[in-house]
Model the fold of this input.
Amino acid sequence: MKKLVSRSDFSLSFDGMHGVSGPYAIRVLGDELGVLPQSLLRCNVLEDFGGAHPDPNLTYAPELVSIMGVFENRPDAPEFGAACDGDADRNMILGKNFFVTPSDSVAIITANYKRIPYLSQGITGAARSMPTSAALDRVLDKMGLPKYETPTGWKFFGNLLDENMI
Done:
């Protein structure tokens, strides 16, 4: 990752939304990988999230959305952008002049698992909660892997993880 981040043709922007992911972004992205401080937005933890709603979406991360050129088609936009909600269990991923819905990000990760060192040895399946998009279902069907739909809540994913089903 450090090699990627240091390339002259790559840039990123991260919005911590004044939540718990901010200090981690500063430590990992900034201190370890060398991402410039101006690329790390709202990474100081504030009890009231700076008066904003800490939900990573196009409405509540307007500065990041603008930087990434989602609606403006900016040629100077970074190649990669991301935001995490207040407790860092949801995310928003953006590319230069486009965004990926949080519901679809797991489908993208699954489709590209062989490129992710932690997952590169293989996956046994994947799961999504009921209100999430069906993009993951289509990816798993194409890959011939089991898919699971759970009620909302991490405990349901935990059970599948414990059984090595996902």
About this structure: The CA atoms of residues 21 and 89 lie 9 Å apart. Strands lie at 12-15, 40-41, 80-84, 91-95, 98-100, 126-129, 147-150. The first strand starts at residue 12 and ends at 15.
